[in-house]
Automatic annotation (TrEMBL):
This is ABC transporter. SMART domains: AAA. The lineage of its organism: Bacteria, Pseudomonadati, Pseudomonadota, Alphaproteobacteria, Rhodobacterales. It comes from Marivivens niveibacter. It is found in: Cell membrane. CDD domains: ABC_Iron-Siderophores_B12_Hemin. One of its GO terms (molecular function) is ATP binding. It is a peripheral membrane protein. SUPFAM superfamilies: P-loop containing nucleoside triphosphate hydrolases (SSF52540). One of its GO terms (biological process) is iron ion transport. InterPro entries: AAA+_ATPase, ABC_transporter-like_ATP-bd, P-loop_NTPase, Siderophore_ABC-ATPase.
Amino acid sequence: MSNDADISVSDAVISYGRKRIVHGVSLTARAGDLTVLVGPNGCGKSTLLKGMARVVPLTQGEIRLGDQDVHRASTRSIARKLALLPQGPIAPEGLTVRELVAQGRFPHQTLLRQWSKQDTEAVDTAMEQADVAQFADQPLNDLSGGQRQRCWIAMILAQDTPVMLLDEPTTFLDLKVQIDLLQLLASIAHGKARAVVVVLHDLNVAAAFADRMIMMRDGKICADGPVSEVFTRENLQTVFGLSADVMRAPMSNRLVCIPAAQIRLAAE
Ligand SMILES: Nc1ncnc2c1ncn2[C@@H]1O[C@H](COP(=O)(O)OP(=O)(O)OP(=O)(O)O)[C@@H](O)[C@H]1O
């Protein structure tokens, strides 16, 4: 059953000039699910996410958020419902962490509704959740790559939208922080019934947290469904050209892949 916070892509084609990058993709990211998009470098994951957030136009097809056509609705109404964390975002020089995170609240302001106590609380909560409250008054550009990445995530959390699209949010983060972040995103998806879509490169981290995994190659979706159906030896071979064993981890019982080169090393 469709929900107001589901985001659906129907037959989307996205091109840069004459170069077609996304070839007729259809998918629905459901409220309450952490949907993970994986695929080889250059296959069109970022372009698809940008199309979903209407940062790039569609050549063909439609993106619907509940009953709204994302590419036709007003910018403000979409910004209240959908947040995108792109790859490698850049902030103006001198901006403090609190100022950056506060930008997440701007779509919620109007002439009649100025900055309120509720906005300050949302900013404080987002900084706590992303574990950056201790940097609140420091310039963003003075922080490490991983600390900065967590500040951008706090900005997206402060925006507090039903749909959250995050393009490789775990870049620069150490493994423990990656796990903490995905746990947080999963809890937001499940607890607040948000549609959270994340592009990830680490397949084992993706498999550990995805409610739903989508594999893309050459601008098309090759597999879409629960991890147990999509994260298979055959799909890793077809989509990534990766020869790997897929097995259950003994402690967590989660599916993990072990590339063949590692298996050979272990056997030596
Ligand atoms: N602004 C642009 N203009 C022209 N071509 C672009 C532009 N952005 C991306 N491309 C091309 O579109 C293709 C898909 O890029 P995209 O960034 O969507 O892939 P991706 O799957 O996110 O890759 P990665 O995993 O490396 O981040 C690539 O061939 C890239 O060169």
